[in-house]
Amino acid sequence: METATMIDITPEIEEIDRQALTIPNQARLVRVVDNGTMQLADNTVNAINDFIKKVDEHYKPMADAAFKTHRSITARWKEVKQPLEDAKAHLVNQVKAYQRKVEEERQAEERRLAEIARKEAEERRLAEALQAEAEGNTEEAQAILEEEMFVPPPVVKVDVPKVDNRKYRTIPRARCIDKMKLIRFVAQNPALADLLDYNSSVGNNKAKSMGKEINNIPGLEYFEE
After folding, report:
1. Residue 3 pLDDT more than 50?
2. What phi, psi does 220 have (nearest 5°)?
3. b/e for 56-73, b at 16 or more Cβ within 10 A?
4. Pair 133, 141: CB distance under 8 Å
């Protein structure tokens, strides 16, 4: 019979374990076919009940002690580990906040440069149209003005330390800040019927698919973890 290595196996416990294996084997040999074997079976049931109590009396105190030890260890474990988890969370949130700031600044710079490039392209096109008109090419000037203008989007790169982004992965989330506004909006937009019975799981799934666009739904607010 296998036993946990932490149990202090005494001769008394060894004898109990031995009997705990022997008694069932003997009990299974009993076949109730008449009054005598019925009485034997009943006596054996009583004997097994008494022996189960004996087993419990020996093992329960050890189990209770082990439980108390386990509870004490896990409490100490959490006490030591939690400050580390809290410190890590603080730093991770700091890095995430900085990454968001850098990305927002990068996007803002791209928008600024894109607007400058658009204006410059517009000025060049206007100058070309004026030049064509000055040369008497009225139709060409009109064509220049009507031609679809394509301005290559600028790409702004930022210089930040390379890190394992799995540690700083952001998770899209949504929270309900006004349930009545949400209900009224959903009532007018049946395609969003899944939001009617709102819970965090539904909101978070919608945040994953819509991103910050979920802020356009009255009553909901996008955030990241």
Report:
1. no
2. -115, 150
3. eeeeeeeeeeeeeeeeee
4. yes
**Mutual angle of helices 35-134 and 11-27, in 10-degree steps:** 100
**CA-CA distance, 54 to 52, in Å (whole number)?**
5
Locate tokens 């206007």: which residue?
A: 126
Residue 60: inside a domain: yes
Q: How many domains does the chain have?
A: 2
Measured distance CA(30)–CA(41) in Å, rounded:
7
| Pick from 97, 105, 129, 60: nearest CA to 224 | 97
DSSP-assigned states of every residue in 139-165:
HHHHHHHHSPP--PPP----------G
Going by C-alpha positions, the residue among 216, 192, 214 that lies closest to residue 204 is: 214
Q: What is the pTM of this model?
A: 0.59
Residue 100 lies in a domain: no
pLDDT at res. 1 = 41
